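User: structure tokens for this one?
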Amino acid sequence: MAYVIRPYRDDDAEVLAAILISAITDIGPHAYSPAQVAAWAARHPGAQRYRERVAAGDVIFVAADVEDRPVAYVLLEQDGHIDHLYNHPDHTRRGLATQLLATATTYAREHGMGRLYSEASDLARPAFERAGFVAAQKREFTLAHGDREVPIHNWGMEKPLS
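Assistant:
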């Protein structure tokens, strides 16, 4: 299947919100417990948050299929932080994360960012490493969910651009 990487459009918001939840709930269980997946998914509001992020200056690049439907995306903040990198479960293992990270890297360089950094899940870490990111540290923390704190972890990743 052919894909194109393009800038975010306002009508992508609902689909991106659905991609995020599908990725967490369908792919997340390959590395995280049911409680961790539930806590992770619960902390993401809905489509309006994408519109707010773009209005605030964040940049989103979308991988779209031949019918121009979003199937994956990356969200890059102005300081070089990659806050989201998510693929729809039906479109994994096709190089989309690598292409999205390459697009974010090009954009960051063109806009004078000195580095990219992120907090990658166990599942996303290999894609970040293939894109030249290095794991700086394993981050152990908790997410509030319901009446409890759920322990979880991710990886602090960084890629110098200079």
